[in-house]
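USER: For my understanding, would you kindly supply a protein sequence with its structure tokens?

ASSISTANT:
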Amino acid sequence: MAPIPPAPVKPGVEQHGPPPDGFVPPRRRPEQALYCSVCGTDNELDRRLCRSCGAVLPSATADRQPWWRRIFRGSTAPAAGDRPGQRRRAQARRGRRAIRAAIGLALLGAVAVLAFPARGAVVSAYHKVADRFSTGYERVTAVSAQASTSAKGHEANKAIDGVKSTAWAEGVPGRGTNQWLTIRLGGKADLAQIGIIPGASDNEQAFRATSRPREILLRFSNRTEQTIKLRDEPTFQTFGVSATGVDSVRLDVLSAFPGQTRLDQTSIAEVEFYVKK
């Protein structure tokens, strides 16, 4: 008896064996999906970040807000696929950048003010405002100054111009013993403190170049006196005083520290007066 031939195979149909162990059928690509240009992963339409690599998806950039609104916007509920922690850190970084920019502008403005030709008046106005916020004392305005002698370019009013790099300097040979500087105030005041920057400047090199007062006798217009001793430092030094009803003060140089150059002119860079608030 002849063997029965196998059933004919229909053309165009491939025959496959059973799937291997552990085989997972490939995921069918959705008809509409957000394609990640970084890793190639398909994402759902409502996602903002790639579910595989975390990159920003195209639709997330379409409604990007201006920088100022992103910095100052209020808190909102996170959208699907959003990462609130990462977003908050980004907002904090933008806020810090904005603060640093504001501080930089303020510093540039301060430099511009100090470079301005009328910086003396500006600095003096700044002191008036700052002193009102200081604890316990308020500055008294000095309106004029006279001196026994003055070196050229170092007149008496240099000691009350509000600029620490200018100074009154006496104009006689020696260290200026018994030379004096008289400062008149804007009206009568009960002085409680006096501040002095000795020397030609608060700059260390300029300060050491010429002689600086060591002892000064304060003669108040109410006929009281007080002797003060200064440190040999280019700093603003304050001294407590008690002089009521005073409208002028005379500063007599009793002794001085020697300078490092032959230009031995005793100088005072700045003098200020204060009353108690």
User: Anything to note?
Assistant: The first helix runs from residue 67 to 72. The chain is about 20% helix and 30% strand. The mean pLDDT is 78. Residues 212 and 240 are 21 Å apart (CA to CA).
